[in-house]
Structures are given as structure tokens and as C-alpha cells.
Amino acid sequence: MTDDLAGYGSNYDLRDEIKAYWSQRAETFDQSPGHEIFSDDERRAWQALILRHLGPGAGRRALDLASGTGVISHLMDDLGYQVTGLDWSEAMLERARAKAKERSRSIRFFLGDAEVTREPEASYDVIITRHLVWTLVDPKACFAEWLRVLKPGGRLLIVDGDFVTIGFGERLVKKLAAAAERFGLVKPEPVPHPPTAMAETHQSILSRVYFSAGARQEAVVAMLQEAGFRTRLVDSNLRRIHRAQRRNFSFFKGLTRGLQHRYAISVEKP
Q: Which one is the CATH code of 3-268: 3.40.50.150, 2.40.160.60, 3.40.50.920, 3.30.420.240?
């Protein structure tokens, strides 16, 4: 086996692991703040971010990559976009389709790979992703594919973060939280967590993806530009969303959310 084929084989195995992991997480995905939206304040905050970066829908075609249970797809639909959601977990898609049926929405959800969408060239006005880039095995190939399926002048919005690097402030808050729990001053974190085995799988996957050292916004922007995108807006202030989410987190979890390196990047196809 050549080195190239060996590399492909290891990537294929990792991608299968990622797919299986998120399929397992589908059952409890919508129970977690930061995944599902639990208040009108948070919904409005997300919609404001989308409008700032992508503008109103007005019937434009939108592709929601790694759409999961359809949270972002429904936000886009509410803003007037004609939405297609793509995910490679059938378990996630089942929940997304059930939501669309319950709300009588005509969002199209289908099984697919963000790296090879198989969608026609220049077929979408906008693409949106939330918490996808940090999981990618080959972001360069993905960015090239996303450029291909966008129309000229089409926009891509990436909402993501560095979930690996822990800064001084976050470390301090976590130590205070642990001490407060130990002395019975606060209750343990109520947000549901995956079982220990799944947490270990998550860490194993994270150590092998492209951004294993953390998806910093500067690196993502540089790679997007290299792929041929033109940068429009880099938004490092997601405080409005974090404030809305905070009421569904414990006190300390809410503090750490605002200290993490999270961002929104919008770029345009020339």
C-alpha cells in the first residue's frame, strides 16, 4: 500500500468513527443547551447573527451542512430561506425530519457528506455550518467543495470555536466550580453529558482531526482565503447568544461559555 492510500485509509476510519459518535449522540442532542435553542431570546440572538452575516432569506437557497437535528435549518427557514439540511447521521436526520413535520415546514433533509455533497455546481446562495469545522478531517477539501456549490457572490457562514485550548480565565472558573461542588456550595452541572465511554471516544476523535490543537479563527480564515473565498466579516463577539444561553447553564458553565474562543466567519465566493 502506498503512503497516500495508507493516509486515506486512516482518514476513512476516523470519519466513520465521527459518524458513529454523532449518531449515538442524536438521542440526547436536543437536551443540551448550546445544541438546541431553549428561549426566544436565544432564537432572536441567532437570527440577528445570521442576518448580520447573510442577510434576509427572501427565498434564497441555503445549505445547512452537518445540520444535525435541524436547529439551524429551522432558524434559516424562519428567516425566509429555502433550506436544505445535509448530515451524515441518519439518526440525526430522523429527528430533523420529525421537527419539520411537526412544524409543517418543507425543509429538505438528506443523508450526505459535507466534504463531497454531490450537489450541483453553483446551486446555493448561502451555506451555513455550526460546530462542524473543528471536527473536519480534511478542511481544505471541504472548503473547495463548498466554494464549488456556491453561486458567484454566494456567502458561507461558519460558526465555530477552539474547544481545545483552555485559557487562564476558563481554567480558573473550572477550578472554582470544582471547589464549589466539593464543598456543597453548588449542585453538580445539570446539563446531560455523554457516558464516560463516549467522552473517551470524543477525546480520541478530537486528538486526530485536522484542528486537533484547536480551530483558531485566524487559521480558518487563512485556509478559506487559500481556497478562493473573499473574507467579509469575522465576528468574535457572540455575547448576545452566550447571555441567552446562560440561563440554561449552571452559573460556572455560563461563565466558561463566554470565555471560550468562539467566532462567526462569513466569506464570499468572488
A: 3.40.50.150
